[in-house]
Amino acid sequence: MNRHSLPSMLRWVHRWVLCWVVVASGVTGCGSRREPKAVGSLAGAVVAVRASGCPTMLPSGTGVWVAAHVVITAAHVVAGSTSIKIIDPSGRTMSAMPIAVDRAQDVAVLRLSRRSSTRLPISSIRALKPGRADVGLVGGRVVPVSVLRTVTVNTSDIDGRAPVSRPGYEIAAGIVRGDSGAPLLIQGQVVGIVWSRSLSRTDRAWVVQIPGSVKTLVGSDGAGVGPVSTGACL
User: Fold this and answer.
1) In terms of CB atoms within 10 Å, which end of the chain has fewer, N or C?
2) How far is CA 24 from CA 42, 142, 161, 184, 234, in A?
């Protein structure tokens, strides 16, 4: 696994979204493709995440249903929020409760009272070979995505204070503001979520792997877990 420091020209993807993105790869080998129609069938599990409570918050980010009552997103999407809403592809709005906010790995877990029949499992895959697939839905179009490498990024927590290492993947894709929390998929399973994009290149972004603690919560569908603080505003 490669290890490098996050360039200073990177930042967390801010929360501005006009549509939802599904960053997916159906292969682990270079040059293969997944049919756009197959990717489109997964889009119902991807939602907009709208948080409020901080004066600097932008409208929304992205999340994905991973259990009947659980959505995961990037922690910086909901940091400092006092209210979190989920908006599904049909436009339906639902309230969400934060049950875990990992500010080091930039992953948050939200629980909803409403049950979703469309959800994507979390993959056990840790290392991906470079590969490409026609994946994602941005403004109704399929976005080409390449997994460039498995990488551990040396960066800081979302507050910019404590040094952390984030295992995940470097991808080439047209990630835009509002795509934070969008899932990277392998064969219909979530291997990580988008947490950063490059400011110097329009085709480069980073995905963090799902932490074990999050997988445990997802495995229990977040049952019996109470709300947690989303911490300070960024």
Assistant:
1) N
2) 10, 10, 31, 5, 29
- β-pairing verdict for 2-5 and 141-156: parallel
- The single-letter code of the amino acid at 28 is T
- The 10 Å Cβ neighbour count of residue 161 is 9
pTM given for the model = 0.83
DSSP state of 59: S
Closest CA relative to residue 11, chosen from 176, 213, 217:
176
Q: Rounding to the nearest 10 degrees, give the CA dihedral for residues 207, 96, 143, 57.
A: -80
From first to last of its 234 residues, the chain has per-residue pLDDT tens of 444 444 332 333 333 222 223 433 322 222 233 434 455 567 788 889 999 999 887 778 989 999 999 999 999 999 999 999 999 888 899 999 999 999 999 999 999 999 998 899 998 887 787 865 545 444 333 566 788 889 999 999 999 999 999 999 999 888 888 889 988 877 778 889 999 998 888 889 999 999 999 999 999 999 999 999 999 999
